[in-house]
Specification:
Elements (H helix, E strand, L loop, with lengths): L1 E3 L9 E2 L11 H13 L8 E10 L9 E9 L14 E4 L13 H11 L4 E4 L2
Parallel strand pairs: 3-6
Antiparallel strand pairs: 1-2, 1-5, 3-4
């Protein structure tokens, strides 16, 4: 997990390696790019699996982030050791057990991880 820092969005809270889909980019291409940019690991499409989809809504978010569709992808394998590649946006990167997430985890991430642990493929959050 990564603790957000100076981003203006959930700073001080832990989230997952993530990002916005760029034009003409698939979810798979997005997570491969973001994993390299944010935590310095190389992923291959054949090692990825969609494990959860969450439709979300949150009033405190900037207007463009209020309605969300989040796809959670599990990397079964990767190359490299996860490390903080964006110290200007993140001040900690570390592993946590699904049974012992930090109290300062982004709420929708905490909910999604609970659903993943319980093999629930779809959820809604913040409505």
């Amino acid at each position: 997990m990564q603790r957000r820092y100076r981003t203006g969005y959930h700073d001080g809270l832990y989230g997952l390696c993530a990002g916005h889909v760029e034009e003409k980019e698939t979810f798979t291409e997005t997570i491969i790019r973001e994993a390299k940019e944010e935590i310095g690991v190389d992923l291959k499409a054949k090692d990825l699996e969609i494990v959860h989809f969450m439709q979300g809504y949150a009033l405190p978010n900037p207007r463009e982030l209020r309605g969300r569709a989040d796809v959670f992808i599990l990397a079964k394998k990767w190359k490299g050791e996860p490390k903080n590649m964006e110290p200007h946006k993140c001040d900690d990167v570390r592993w946590f057990s699904l049974n012992s997430l930090p109290k300062n985890t982004i709420p929708f991430i905490k909910e999604a991880l609970k659903n993943i642990k319980n093999n629930k493929i779809y959820s809604e959050f913040g409505f």
